[in-house]
Write a structure and sequence with these properties.
single chain; alpha+beta; two-stranded antiparallel ribbon; five-stranded mixed β-barrel; rod-shaped
């Protein structure tokens, strides 16, 4: 088997080495991720910032994916594409596609980790629709509907305005009074 490998063109040997080593590292990373041991290092360095809004384009995982796509493309198309420059360019393109695809997938997975717990304090400053009229001068509560992070919430509301805010009106949330009761003003 070693003699067969030594008989190959040096460039094809390089593609095989990259493909096999990156496959092994990729499998180890996948197993580590599923087991719960997942450490990814940002290798963007101090000079250039490749991290745009948490979107790590250059990391250990994406580099491994690049080499995986590059190596296997070189191996698989070796007999099909005879021009070594064209083959290398194709391998580079496929490697970049692998790299950006993984970075995009990792970004989507990281969004799943966000805490989207509703907190009434987050509604301050938002405009809400009045669902049940809100009596003037905090005489009693009414109800508003407000949209936050793509979900709609119904909250009890009070106002310091001297006029009642009618059903169907608009109100701005100015403060949280207690729990899920907010203070609003008519817009």
């Amino acid at each position: 088997m070693i003699e067969t490998f030594k008989a190959l063109d040096p460039m094809l040997q390089g593609y095989w080495v990259l493909a096999i080593l990156s496959s092994i590292v990729f499998i180890v990373q996948a197993i580590a991720t599923f087991v719960g041991f997942d450490a990814d290092t940002d290798v963007s360095g101090g000079d250039a910032d490749f991290d745009a809004d948490g979107f790590h384009i250059v990391s250990i995982k994406t580099i491994v994916c690049f080499i995986l796509g590059f190596g296997w493309t070189g191996v698989l198309f070796w007999d099909t594409i005879e021009n070594p420059i064209l083959l290398t360019l194709l391998a580079l393109v496929v490697g970049l596609i692998f790299m950006f695809t993984l970075a995009l997938l990792l970004r989507w997975v990281m969004k799943l980790d966000k805490d989207n717990t509703f907190r009434t304090e987050q509604t301050v400053g938002l405009v809400a629709d009045v669902y049940l009229r809100i009596p003037a001068s905090r005489m009693s509560t009414g109800k508003i509907i407000v949209s936050l992070n793509g979900s709609i919430h119904e909250l009890e509301a009070l106002t310091d305005d001297t006029e009642t805010i009618p059903t169907g009106g608009k109100a701005e949330i100015v403060a949280v009074v207690k729990g899920s009761t907010v203070l609003v003003k008519k817009i």
